[in-house]
Input
Amino acid sequence: MKTKWKKRETMKTGKVLISTTEEKETMVVGEALGFIIKEPLVIAIDGDLGAGKTTLVRGAALGLEVEGKIRSPTFNLLRVYRGRLPVYHFDFYRLEVEEELFDLGLEEYLEGQGVVFIEWANKFPSFLPGEYLEVYLERVCGEGGNRQEWRNLYFNPRGDYYERLLDIFLENTCYDFQGRINYRGRDIKEE
Output
């Protein structure tokens, strides 16, 4: 029997909320996150279409010392990269039924030795492990004369390890007065 997906409603709240106004800022937030990742883990990323899910992963890949261009896995469903840890980048957007996840070998990657990023993870929440980091990206547009658009990134830890990971992120990451992110006294490049 094929199971059609039903989107789980995601609350737009989190332990950490970061707003970015440009794509490069979203990428820098991802890079800071990538710097603090030291062991295999799972990051489930959801949000509005075009909100910057792949951009966040690109930044995290920089922090994980992945060389080369990070591409969206929308049409491939999975892309694998080498860095300090292996990076497995999934995209569930085009998947319709849970059975397709078995064909991808998702469970092997979730239990593996790398960092697993899953875009559109909310389509199949039953396949997520018991503990993971949930990130929700929201596109926001100003009202009236203010038509500026920005992104809100909500980080929700699902488990003790991910709670500690976000604490480390908060303790070591800050913005300077010019809006540049700084990680442990080191400016993160804005490419």
Remarks:
- The first strand starts at residue 16 and ends at 20.
- The mean pLDDT is 83.
- The longest helix spans residues 23-36.
- The chain is about 25% helix and 30% strand.
